[in-house]
Amino acid sequence: MSYQVNGHTIEHDEEGYITNLSDWSIELANEIARTENIEMTDEHWEVVNFLRQYYEEYQIAPAVRVLIKAIKKSMGPEKGNNKYMYELFPYGPAKQACKIAGLPKPTGCV
Amino acid sequence: MPDVKKFLYVNRKAPYGTIYALESLEVVLIGAAFEQDVSLAFLDDGVFQLTKGQNTEGIGVKNFSPTFRALGDYEVTKLFVERESLEERGLTEADLQEITYEDEDDDWAEKPSIRVVSRAEMAEIMADQDVVLSF
């Protein structure tokens, strides 16, 4: 299973998470978003970039409630809430945004 | 909150070489979703899990030590480290990485998560739990 970006083949697991984190690129993120039926806006990128920074710092993809709390702390309550985040990523802010960010499936998502 | 139990995850092994340390941390992060009263204990070689400046490049595995600093986000705020285990390995608290959490009940003040305790105190902490999981 793989994504095709600019003539490159990028492997992913059965749920669509890329296998090799260093394969990530902005073009790939757009391609993954397309397969998730998400049109990337600045607001989507804000969350995706936040997740990539979180992973860089802590080496984990946070669970959804941890992500929303961290967004609230960083960007304020008008963004750090379930409604806003699920409008951006209807099938789960952590799961979908992590997939687009090229991170593993969130740890602690049950 | 109904049926909150006291869970203690006991970590006795070095961070790398076996999968125990990483598996324990993953179980803690997953278990945190159930909103129980969670503590972690580090004794024997487990104290090495919290040392700062870990570098795993030479052994080709992921350095997961930064993940301990995310525990506060998961509301896991009690990391008990046994003083005798540190001393027996020539370590002091200064060799451990700084791990903090924000106290919701105290205007989000940043507080240390690591508490160094004696062997006798550790025994009391263990006796006080509903569930003890050993790794």
TrEMBL record, chain A:
UniProt-annotated catalytic positions: 109
GO molecular function annotations of the record: sulfur carrier activity; transferase activity
Keyword Cell membrane: no
Keyword Cytoplasm: yes
Entry superkingdom: Bacteria
Localization annotation: Cytoplasm
A Gene Ontology term for the protein's cellular component: cytoplasm
Keywords: Cytoplasm, Transferase
Protein's UniProt name: Sulfur relay protein TusE
GO terms classed as biological process: tRNA wobble position uridine thiolation
Organism: Ruegeria marisrubri
Family from the record: Belongs to the DsrC/TusE family.
UniProtKB/TrEMBL annotation, chain B:
Pfam families cross-referenced by the UniProt entry: DsrE (PF02635)
InterPro entries attached to this UniProt entry: DsrEFH-like, Sulphur_relay_DsrE/F-like, Sulphur_relay_TusC/DsrF
Signal peptide: none
Gene3D superfamilies in UniProt: DsrEFH-like (3.40.1260.10)
Alphabetical list of NCBIfam families matching this protein: PRK00211.1, sulf_tusC_dsrF
Family membership noted in the UniProt record: Belongs to the DsrF/TusC family.
UniProt xrefs under PANTHER family: PROTEIN TUSC (PTHR38780:SF1)
Protein name: Sulfur oxidoreductase
Native source organism of the sequence: Ruegeria marisrubri
